[in-house]
User: Which sequence fits this backbone?
């Protein structure tokens, strides 16, 4: 379920000090807005719940992630894929925000590492607080969705560790098909992954649940 919320709703659920998070969000929204805020509550299986929490916080030391909505002059949006994804699955590029890294520093680093682009313009269009839950626990996690005008048309990964194997430019209307593909994956671990990843695509495409 995805629902619009206020900045206060977002801030009160953070794992870090509330005043620091609120100050950061206010500064970002003021400089790079207008910005909408959402709460996405998702129930996922126990195995993937533990995997997500471990890989995104404890192992990689992330405090959130950037979602890159890179839109070219033909008004098309960039998707990418990786060799270990299920067949024909493309999605919006994302990247982790390191513990002592600012959101904007992370944005510039990630867009360059994944595409070699530099942004000509930036808008923080949405902030999403995920409440990922299993039977016993809730894990909060932030996504910052940025719309970006790139300085080029031909993406090329710089960081080969990202394992990006392909790109495609799509019209925004095609996001409905991307959501359907992500939410229809199987087995269960891929379904949980797709359910989480579909949220940003729903928000960008205006498809609220």
Assistant:
């Amino acid at each position: 379920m995805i629902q619009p919320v206020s900045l206060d709703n977002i801030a009160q659920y953070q794992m870090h000090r509330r005043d620091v998070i609120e100050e950061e969000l206010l500064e970002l929204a003021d400089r790079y807005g207008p910005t909408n805020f959402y709460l996405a509550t998702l129930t996922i299986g126990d195995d993937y719940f533990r995997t997500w929490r471990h890989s995104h916080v404890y192992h990689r030391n992330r405090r959130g992630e950037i979602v890159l909505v890179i839109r070219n002059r033909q008004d098309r949006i960039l998707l990418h894929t990786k060799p270990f994804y299920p067949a024909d699955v493309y999605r919006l590029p994302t990247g982790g925000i390191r513990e002592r890294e600012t959101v904007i520093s992370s944005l510039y680093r990630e867009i360059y590492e994944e595409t070699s682009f530099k942004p000509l313009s930036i808008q923080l269009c949405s902030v999403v607080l995920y409440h990922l839950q299993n039977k016993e626990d809730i894990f909060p996690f932030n996504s910052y969705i940025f719309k970006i005008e790139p300085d080029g048309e031909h993406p090329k990964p710089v960081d080969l560790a990202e394992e990006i194997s392909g790109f495609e430019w799509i019209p925004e209307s095609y996001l409905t098909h991307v959501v359907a593909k992500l939410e229809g994956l199987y087995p269960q671990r891929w379904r949980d992954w797709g359910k989480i990843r579909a949220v940003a695509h729903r928000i960008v495409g205006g498809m609220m649940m």
Summary: The helical segments are 7-11, 18-32, 46-59, 103-115, 175-183, 188-204. Residues 31 and 123 are 9 Å apart (CA to CA). Residues 2-172 form a domain with the Nucleoside Triphosphate Pyrophosphohydrolase fold (CATH 3.90.79.10). The beta strands are 2-4, 36-43, 62-70, 76-81, 94-98, 119-133, 138-150, 166-171.
